Amino acid sequence: MVPKIRRGSRTHGLLVYLYGPGKRDEHIDPHLVGSWDGFAPDPGRDTSPDPDPKITLARLAAALDLRVKQAGTTAPAEHVWHCSVRTDPGDRTLTDAEWNTVAQRLVHAVNLAPEGDPDGCRWVAVRHADDHIHILATVVRGDLRRPRMNYDFKKAQAECRRIEKEMGLRRLKPGDGTGAKTPTSAERFKTERTGRPEAPRETLREAVRQALAGTASEEEFFTRLHEAGLRVKIRNAPSGDAIGYNVALPGDRNRHGEPIWYPGSKLAPDLSLPKIRQRLADGTTDQMPSSAATSNRPDWSPPVRERRSATGIAERAAIVLDSDDDEAAAQLVGIGELLDAVAQTSPAATRAELGAAARAFERATRSHVRAERADIRAIRSAARGIIQAGSALGRGEDGGTTAMLVSTLVLVALAAARWHSARGHAQQAHASRQTAEHLRAAYRQAAATPMQALRDQGRALPEAERRTHQATIRAALPEAALRADSSSTKTDALAATLAQAEQTGHDPKALLQQAIDMRELDTAEDVNDVLVWRLRHLAQLPAHPGEATRRPQAGTIQSKPSANRTIPQTAPTAAPRPAASDPRNCPPRR
Prior knowledge:
Layout: E1 2-8, H1 11-19, E2 31-35, H2 53-71, E3 80-86, H3 96-109, E4 122-129, E5 132-138, H4 152-167, H5 185-194, H6 200-212, H7 218-227, E6 231-236, E7 242-248, E8 262-263, H8 264-267, H9 273-282, H10 292-295, H11 302-322, H12 328-345, H13 348-364, H14 377-389, H15 400-422, H16 426-459, H17 463-476, H18 479-482, H19 492-503, H20 508-517, H21 527-538
Antiparallel strand pairs: 1-3, 2-4, 3-5, 4-5, 6-7, 7-8
Helix pairs in contact: 1-2, 3-4, 6-7, 11-12, 11-14, 11-15, 12-13, 12-14, 12-15, 13-16, 15-16, 15-21, 16-19, 17-19, 17-20, 19-20, 19-21, 20-21
């Protein structure tokens, strides 16, 4: 049950709309289901001998405005309180009596008309559809004072959660006021008329978020907005300093032919210019050390190197999230940028699911928890490196390194869900779990070819060598971790990886134990797959099993059976160059 509250100044005008046909003839049988005294005139069901809906509507408006006129100049300019309340599409249809109960409880909860108070404000509840009502109230009490209605939206939300439980309706997750602003009704109708896939506000939010991923400076952020094809208008103080910005989609204009501008703060709370400056200050991506784990493999393409480096950094973020520290709030912001970067640069086969994961996780990055010592330089540098490395398709990327990174990001998303759940952040926890599902779908697409090749290699091992590695796997993993379906066939890819690690000079038993000790495996959909990618990352094995393995060069660090290791960080590379003008399909900046 979703309440939506607005303020206005035209009682009669709102009643005309509520009792009218609607903008698209969607209003059916408009009538009252409740009022302040139970005897208000009903323009929709007037039972008088000679009914005239217009006269009855005027009488109702006059009755509602009576105290407003009596208060005179002391009445508020916006004296109309308007709340629409809608049930979920899957809910049962409520009766008029039940909707009356809902209306009475809401006007009581927000202190408009407390139960038993004869001086409560006047109100009516109009129903013109099965799934919602509109509550109209005039905010002047019988003693001509204004009601105290602080935090009316939060109070209405809380009462709706209680009503859902008591009436057996779908129980929505309580919010905390950090969610992004949803499109208005006018924006949704315009989107339908123009045939857009989504409202401009949502397109702009995603484009701005992608432009911010891995950005090192405010100037670079604005450059990326222009490169993405957006119209950008910077607001300056009298001193000339930028104090805000507005963005608009090309071609999105109002009735006067003017661009429709959206301030960053109206797209999402964390996209205002002050919040962006704070993020840039907390996570400056310049001057980061190069990745030791990837610098000694010059044969790997830039997208492969950056994805492998980001895998280690994401592992560290998951460990921080599992520590239950409030400082993990900063890691969530960085993970959001990393998801945006991967989605922009991945092949088409996985881009849709990765984009959906990034959009879902956007909600998980915001809460009222603040990290006092935010340091997200490593993870923002990983996002920057992935974007600057460019598209992975056709550059040594066959899905293997994407699968390696996405496999880790699944566990990061689940760790974020646990972190939010522990703090009662229901919406953010739900968004994190949705992210994990999208990432799992993307992983299955990216990993299908390389994992099949690894399983083929495992089955092709000499029988004695295969039995040796299978014994190592059984000894290291508890029976519960192997799971019922983890037969020897399921562990062929893991056996092949251990064999390749041994060929490059690693101790298979020690390396496998190090991979197991890195962090928990209970949330893994397939333990074998997770360990395969951990092993290939630790041993610097090619993500594509068809590539030749080789012994590590001088200076390569051999594996040790310890979970306490240093995760490498990614270095920024070149400056960005212009991208395509379509903000929904722009390629990554390099």
